[in-house]
Specification:
The protein is of the alpha/beta class and 317 residues long. The protein has a single domain (25-305), classed as TIM Barrel (Alpha-Beta Barrel), CATH 3.20.20.70. Helix content is 47%, strand content 10%. It is built from 13 helices and eight strands. The protein has helices spanning 11-19, 26-36, 43-55, 68-79, 101-107, 129-141, 153-157, 161-174, 192-195, 198-211, 229-246, 261-274, 292-305; strands at 57-60, 93-96, 114-119, 146-150, 185-189, 215-217, 251-253, 287-289. It has an eight-stranded parallel β-sheet with strand order 7-6-5-4-3-2-1-8. The longest helix is centred in the last third of the chain and has 18 residues, at 229-246.
């Protein structure tokens, strides 16, 4: 990271670096993403991919109507996605609002499943920094293992890059657990649908990684355009290049709009062919999803039995 020390010394230096990154060939990017999405996956590889995808899910409920009972039910599903088949892996994390962290923490005790909490005035990011940091600190104090923050898109789109950089750094500091017990991992959400251009997504990826993001995440799932194969491919290229330059590995989390096993497997192909198999792990790649798990379970059942299950085979979240 020493090589990039001067990059963040001033707003002008950071702007010069970000705007000096290679421009994105949109046609080429979308063509490659589409091409990789046509790869044929054979039966044995498909079974492996389905289980891997299940283990990468951040099972999510982020609704105003969330209740403790709903969160507990989601945690139970995360622990045993298919109660009839103990061979199904558990999910990576349960993602909730900060006030539901204690409920999830209690329900997941001893499971190894992470509790993730959105923070920093999710999903808009429109709040004073002091409010955002208090939001993070409260979630971490309640036991959150991971924090999913949203950047200030208004500041980024206005070219106030250093302001965004410093806010990510401040949030990472707020992820420190009380009593010196380490810190929660930080996922930085861009909201790609609002960044407007692929060049902005590349710039935001590098800005977040330089600021110390543990993961970079496509979106909140609350706008019209969320994760796409093309914007996820671009972020995978960024983490690959960042590790090549710095030796630091950063994870990627596409979120929103990934609903089927077929979609999930396409994303796993993107990971393998772009960043490499080092990222084919829940430690480095996640799916932000609420409905994806059900289709993965149905496709898994189809592979093992040769027939599709009925509509009551999986729970309705």
């Amino acid at each position: 990271m020493r090589r990039f020390a001067g990059v963040t010394s001033s707003d002008s230096a950071l702007r010069a670096f970000l705007h000096g990154l290679p421009g994105v060939d949109a046609v080429g990017l979308e063509a490659r993403a589409a091409s990789l999405g046509t790869r044929s996956i054979k039966t044995s590889a498909k079974a492996y991919a389905i289980d891997l995808a299940i283990s990468m899910i951040d099972l999510t409920t982020l609704e105003g109507a969330d209740t403790p009972g709903k969160v507990r039910a989601l945690c139970a599903k995360g622990r045993r996605p298919d109660p009839t088949d103990p061979g199904v892996p558990q999910v990576a994390a349960i993602c909730v609002y900060p006030d539901m962290v204690p409920v999830a923490k209690d329900a997941l005790a001893g499971s190894g499943i992470q509790v993730a909490s959105v923070a920093t005035a999710f999903p808009s990011g429109r709040a004073a920094r002091s409010v955002k940091l208090a939001d993070v600190a409260a979630a971490v104090a309640a036991g959150a293992d991971e924090i999913d923050m949203v950047i200030d898109r208004g500041a980024f789109l206005s070219g106030r890059y250093l302001e965004v950089f410093e806010e990510i750094q401040a949030v990472k500091e707020a992820c420190a657990r009380p009593g010196g017990g380490g810190r929660a991992h930080l996922k930085v959400i861009f909201e790609n649908g609002e960044l407007a251009t692929y060049d902005n997504i590349r710039r935001c990826s590098w800005l977040a990684m330089l600021a110390g993001a543990d993961f970079i995440k496509t979106s909140t799932g609350k706008v019209a355009v969320n994760a796409t194969p093309a914007n996820t491919l671009l972020m995978l290229e960024a983490v690959r290049d960042f590790r090549r330059e710095t030796g630091v590995q950063v994870g990627v989390k596409p979120a929103g709009g990934i609903r089927t096993a077929k979609d999930a497997i396409k994303y796993l192909v993107l990971v393998n062919e772009t960043a490499g198999d080092d990222w084919l792990s829940p430690h480095w790649f996640r799916f932000g999803a609420s409905s994806l798990l059900n289709d993965l379970l149905m496709q898994r059942h189809k592979l093992s039995t040769g027939r599709y299950s009925g509509p009551d085979y999986v729970t309705v979240d």
